[in-house]
TrEMBL record:
Keyword list, A-Z: Complement pathway, Disulfide bond, Glycoprotein, Hydrolase, Immunity, Innate immunity, Protease, Repeat, Secreted, Serine protease, Signal, Sushi
Gene: LOC102434614
Phylogenetic lineage: Eukaryota, Metazoa, Chordata, Craniata, Vertebrata
Alphabetical GO biological process terms: complement activation, classical pathway; innate immune response; proteolysis; response to bacterium
Keyword Protease among record annotations: yes
Disulfide partners: C116-C143, C176-C203
Pfam families: Sushi (PF00084), VWA (PF00092)
Organism: Myotis lucifugus
The protein's name in its UniProt record: C3/C5 convertase
Cofactor(s) the protein requires to work: Mn(2+); Mg(2+)
PANTHER family: COMPLEMENT C2, SUSHI DOMAIN-CONTAINING PROTEIN
Length: 405
């Protein structure tokens, strides 16, 4: 009987009889593309597919479950992964003119040509080409006769616009056709300055993305207009709806929030970093006092630099911190928690208010700008709105102080 007990005790230690750790199957190749694994074939590992330029993966990723099965993030069954050709959306409408060719969508390298009816002037690009990232090059074409207080806001490719009056106070609204995703302003208003509020909307395919060479100049240009009032010799040309008015003796807190969650690929995160570096380099070229905060986030935020740090006023140090951010810092946090990221900004603001004193001009005269670099797919933490409301409260944002945030 004693020998039997000894045998029973030894059985669990024998390698051949130990329970095998679960793992997911390795038959996950993608036709025409490649894939990477965050943690091998073990449960919790994220598989991310990639394709050559001009094609996109379906599905984009899979998650290895504890049961040893692969599943897409949305828990929907998928067939064998493939790389599909990228296509650009087609116009839904073009006012006071015509465009060719008329297709349901356009292949990479395809052109769209625009021309106006008599009495109308073409603004924007007369010819646009579909690029490998699923975006059209050039600018939105529109035909305008100059009759309104504001120029025609146009109808960006893939969008539907309601509202055809362009007088002072008139509004136009936009939505996207089919499965396209809208970025920019869904509603714009004609202002006293003769400029439309907000930013021009873009309707894009869910798989489309921006090239770094497009993002960086756009951010730099936005900053030039945003802070143009700091240079009294510069000609003022209105181009955006919101401005942060800062005098030379004033101070700006710039909060850079970079999404490093599972849905953001490492290449996309690199674009975020390059864009942020361009922005910092540009903003420190203005004759104003600036403090920069850097926060990366996934399921939880990580503060790389606070506006309370002395080095946050040193452009060289800020760029050094940005260059050395590690995308892998958040590899164990797969979710996208925009609420937590914004809440960390609120905590930072509150700490600075306590340090400077709520009633002092040193605190009340600081302007604040929050730049959120994300793919927009917040999936945990709830709505970011409560965090935004808290930020507005601590900054006492009201109609008279709307340009402080």
């Amino acid at each position: 009987m004693g020998s039997l007990r000894a045998l029973l005790c030894l059985l669990p230690l024998y390698p051949g009889l130990a329970a095998a750790a679960p793992s997911c199957p390795q038959n996950v190749e993608i036709s025409g593309g490649n894939f990477t694994l965050s943690h091998g074939w073990a449960p919790g590992s994220v598989l991310v597919y990639s394709c050559p330029l001009g094609r996109y993966p379906v599905p984009t990723s899979r998650l290895c479950l504890s049961s040893g099965r692969w599943q897409t993030p949305r828990s929907s069954p998928v067939a064998k992964a493939v790389c599909k050709p990228v296509r650009c959306p087609a116009p839904v409408a073009f006012e006071n003119g015509m465009y060719t060719p008329r297709l349901g969508s356009h292949p990479v390298g395809g052109n769209l040509s625009f021309q106006c009816e008599d009495g109308f002037v073409l603004r924007g690009s007369p010819v646009r080409q579909c690029r490998p990232n699923g975006m059209w090059d050039g600018e939105t074409a529109m035909c305008d006769n100059g009759a309104g207080h504001c120029p025609s806001p146009g109808i960006p490719v893939g969008s539907v616009r309601t509202g055809s009056r362009f007088g002072l106070g008139d509004k136009v609204n936009y939505r996207c056709s089919s499965n396209l995703v809208l970025t920019g302003s869904a509603e714009r208003e004609c202002q006293d300055s003769g400029v439309w509020s907000g930013t021009e909307p873009i309707c894009r395919q869910p798989y489309s993305y921006d090239f770094p060479e497009d993002v960086a100049p756009a951010l730099g240009t936005s900053l030039s207009h945003l802070l143009g009032s700091t240079n009294p010799t510069q000609k003022k040309k209105e181009s955006v709806g919101r401005k942060i008015q800062i005098q030379r003796s004033g101070h700006l807190n710039l909060y850079l929030l970079l999404d490093a969650s599972q849905s953001v690929k490492e290449e996309d995160f690199r674009i975020f970093k390059e864009s942020a570096i361009l922005m910092v380099d540009r903003i420190f070229s203005f004759e104003i006092n600036v403090s920069v905060a850097i926060i990366t986030f996934a399921s939880k935020p990580k503060i790389i630099m606070s506006v309370l740090d002395d080095n946050s006023r040193d452009g060289t140090e800020v760029i050094y911190r940005l260059e050395n951010i590690n995308y892998r810092d958040h590899e164990n946090g797969t979710g996208t928690n925009i609420y937590k990221a914004l809440h960390s900004v609120y905590i930072m603001m509150n700490n600075q208010m306590q340090r400077l004193g709520m009633s002092t001009s040193a605190w009340k005269e600081i302007r604040h700008a929050i730049i959120l670099l994300t793919d927009g797919k917040s999936n945990i933490g709830g709505s970011p709105k409560p965090a935004v409301d808290n930020i507005k409260e601590v900054l006492n944002i009201n109609q008279r102080r709307s340009d402080y945030l």
